[in-house]
Please model this.
Amino acid sequence: MSAVSRISARLIIDLAREHGFALADVTRVMPSAHTDYIRNWLAAGKHGTMTYLEQHFDERVDAGVLVPGARSVICVADVYRARPGDLSPPAAPDSPMGRFASYAWGDDYHKVVKKRLFAMCDALRNRWPGHTFRAAVDTAPILEREHAQLAGLGWIGKHTLLINTQLGSYFVLGQIVTTLAIDDDDEAMAFDATDVDTCGDGGRVGDRDDHCGTCTRCIDACPTQCIDPAGYRMDASRCISYLTIEHRGMIDQDLHAPLGYWIAGCDVCQDVCPFNQRAQVNGQGSDASDAQINGAPARHVVPRADYSARNMSLPLLDVLNWSAADRQRAFTRSALKRAKLDMLKRNALIAAGNYLKTRDDDALHRRVSALCDDIDEPVLVRETARQVVAQMNRRDM
Model:
């Protein structure tokens, strides 16, 4: 770029700050460095039944194919949760409750993030007409974590999620792919958009380097052992988030016990991460603190009110009695709309079986048994109920 055409990433960062993102920065468009690995991962079936990952492969590994002429990717992050323990339901509840992953406790992050990305795109088009700006949140074929790491928002940890040294990993990502050439010659150091005036290095704090070290807490804690022993790779077909939300068939009985009480997603690998334990993130409405970022005082980040917890867990008996209308009401504003009613009942049945291993609950036991032969229920629900009852009967022998 010539001196006249250089567009500072700081302009983009300031815009992201105005729209309330916790982290933001820019990276250049380039083909993925992991193209061969992703192709082999798919060929090995590690993606389970997520066949959509096989589609638009060329676009997925090169944002320049997704948006012809693209020069830059603007990466942003929204923090959705405070530190573990601030708002966590018990892992072993006294009453039969099904647990949700914390990203789904509040409003649908797709809508929360995309609304503000669209507003950013409008502002960018007004300033630079003639350029393309395409917003993406999770659903477009783009390697969001790789771009976020290149932009300096964090590094991809051993659990394969993005981690920021100051904020941990409880955040969701968004991108704007654009034909605008944005200057990142100063090594695009990730920006804490909540407190630009007090951050060191002009408000940009780089976080690309891997800080996992010898830690294996996420690997050791994973209930289904879906993370490779060496880290950084995973078998998604064994991940609880995949099994409970993406997988639409029967769940292998060997995986029933590891699912515990999770009925939609899982937080285990994040909950045990040391960077989340000490993350500079407070609960909604918390006061600022004297935390340090790059040696300069910075405020703790507060998750947006949109992510305030509404549904951290639900009674298993209620879910097992749900109608389609009940599910619709429960998830009207949630990111869990992807999980169909029969899948949620399947998950709740498995959780109920795990609960009834060590506790008595006559009403729950009766409902599980009744679902075995309820012709009004889908085959998935009836067959799972039969598996759970058979497991309980074997334990009682």
In short: The chain is about 35% helix and 15% strand. Residues 321 and 367 are 8 Å apart (CA to CA).
